[in-house]
Amino acid sequence: MSHPTLSHPLHTHEQLTTLVENRTIYSLDAFELNVFETHRVAEQVPLSMGHLVLTTMLRGKKVMHLPGRPAFDYLPGESVLVGEDQTMVIDFPEATEDAPTQCLAVAIPTETIRQTVDLLNEEYPHAEAHLPWRLDTAEHAHLTNTPELTGTLERLVQLSRDTGRVKDVLANFTIQEMLVRLMQTQARQLLFHNYAQHATSHRFAAVVQYIKQHLADKLTIDKLSNLACMSKATFFRVFRQELGITPVEYINQERLAEAKRLLRQPLASVADVCYRVGFTSTAYFQRLFKQAEGLTPGAYRKRCL
């Protein structure tokens, strides 16, 4: 499945040019939005924003160096969360005048983060009390964007350009939504990729493990809610609240990922793959696959073989 990226290019208003990067700043009461554009190859460029910052790669490639972890490639469709006391050190291995590197950075006031996290923990507590709502700037700081997070970032970009009188009011709501989407994205990364190590301590990790092990079976909300020791309604609501995706959407996402793997095998027919991953209707499978990938399972299979 392709990573969602911002759908429109960004242009400059007021511009600050540093040694390597061109920096454009859009300041609102609720947040500061920065656009960094780099036109030449460089190494070991330090950048510190003074606030907690969500950066999102728009174009090109960077190599990021963050304290306490190995360097990693940073590509479009990904985000990196950087703490207010952290300094990013960045390499630009491919930037040119014709193909610049472009990155979005949203600086978020500490008080806005505190108020949002406190509200969530008070009004919408997690299923596991030992894992409250919080922003993780260490283990899960490097993220693959979800469509929900990308959509919220697009609205922040639009608001930063808006000249309407109520834009600061709208910005307050939107930055809170972005924080929620960011924490949901981190929770997905924790559970969907590290479910085995949390299966005995987190009910949703146990559910994720069961789904992955029984994709070809009939997976019902009754069964999954029983695994989570919740009523059906509570399970559905809290799963979506914490992870930003419904249980059914997650099951379909996993089935489509497995279908893509099977379709790359030369002897697998589309119908066979459909039933092997747990779908009972080829028409439904075809529709979901095309929505997710932009082409039919048959076309995907031909492209891969």
From TrEMBL:
Keywords, ordered alphabetically: DNA-binding, Transcription, Transcription regulation
Domain HTH araC/xylS-type residue range list: 205-303
Cross-referenced Gene3D superfamilies: Homeodomain-like
InterPro entries documented for this protein: AraC_XylS_family_regulators, Homeodomain-like_sf, HTH_AraC, HTH_AraC-typ_CS, Tscrpt_reg_AraC-type_HTH, Tscrpt_reg_HTH_AraC_N
Keyword Ribosomal protein (UniProt): no
PROSITE patterns in the record: HTH_ARAC_FAMILY_1, HTH_ARAC_FAMILY_2
Keyword DNA-binding: yes
Protein name (Swiss-Prot/TrEMBL): AraC family transcriptional regulator
Originating organism: Hymenobacter citatus
